[in-house]
Design brief:
It is a single chain. The protein is mostly beta strands. It has a single domain (about 1-180), classed as Jelly Rolls (Sandwich). It contains 2 helices and 15 strands. The strands form 4 sheets. It has a 6-stranded antiparallel beta sheet with strand order 1-2-11-7-13-5, with no helix packed on it. A hairpin with a 2-residue loop joins β3 (about 20) and β4.
C-alpha cells in the first residue's frame, strides 16, 4: 500500500496494491496492520454505505461534535467522486485549509480523514456508491452540517448548483454554527 500525505495534517490518501491477471484482480480493502504502519491507528466501529443516483450530488460538509467526533476512511466502490476534507481544528498547522482527492471504482484509492475535519463529496458520475468506516458510532444529537459553499472555507467544488439534501441546503456557515474543535 502506498500512502500519500496531503496538505491537511493527518489526511492521508491510500493507494492499495492491486494484483491482476486474466481472471480480474485482487486487493486488500482494509488491513488494520497496514493502516497502523501508515500512522492511522484508530479502531473502526461502524461501516456505512451511500448511493447517489445523479452526477452533481453533493453530500456535505458534515461532522460530529465531540465526544462522538469521527475519523473516516472512505472508498468509492462504483462511479467517481471528488472527496473533500477541511481542517477546522483550532491550533492545527493546517487550520482552515482543505484538500480534495478523486476517488473512483477504477482507481481504488481510499481517503483517511481525521477527527476535527469537515467532510463532503461531490459525485462526478451517475450511480455512485461510497463505503466508509468510522471510529465512533453515529450520534444524531452531535451530527452537524456546514454550508458547502461557505466563503470562509473556500472549497473549490467546480459546481455552482449541486443536488443537495434539505439538511445541507439549510446548513449554517461555520461562523454561525456550534462546531468547534481543538487540535
Amino acid at each position: 500500500m502506498n500512502t500519500i500525505k496531503t496538505k491537511v495534517d493527518g489526511a492521508i490518501i491510500l493507494e492499495p496494491d492491486v494484483f491482476g491477471d486474466n481472471r480480474g484482480w485482487f486487493m486488500e480493502s482494509y488491513s488494520k496492520k497496514k493502516l497502523a504502519d501508515a500512522g492511522i491507528d484508530v479502531e473502526f466501529v461502524q461501516d456505512n454505505r451511500s448511493f447517489s443516483a445523479e452526477k452533481g450530488t453533493l453530500r456535505g460538509l458534515h461532522c460530529q461534535l465531540n465526544p462522538t467526533a469521527q475519523s473516516k476512511l472512505l472508498t468509492c466502490i462504483k462511479g467517481k467522486i471528488l472527496d473533500v476534507a477541511v481542517d477546522i481544528r483550532k491550533g492545527s498547522p493546517t487550520y482552515m485549509q482543505w484538500v480534495s482527492v478523486e476517488l473512483s471504482g477504477e482507481n481504488k484509492k481510499s481517503f483517511f480523514i481525521p477527527k476535527g475535519c469537515l467532510h463532503g463529496f461531490l459525485t462526478l458520475t451517475d450511480d455512485v456508491e461510497v463505503m466508509y468506516k468510522v471510529d465512533e458510532f453515529y450520534s444524531p444529537s452531535d451530527d452537524r452540517s456546514i454550508r458547502f459553499d461557505d466563503p470562509a472555507l473556500g472549497v473549490e467544488w467546480g459546481i455552482e448548483n449541486p443536488i443537495l439534501s434539505q439538511k445541507d441546503k439549510n446548513a449554517p456557515l461555520l461562523s454561525q454554527s456550534d462546531v468547534e474543535f481543538e487540535y
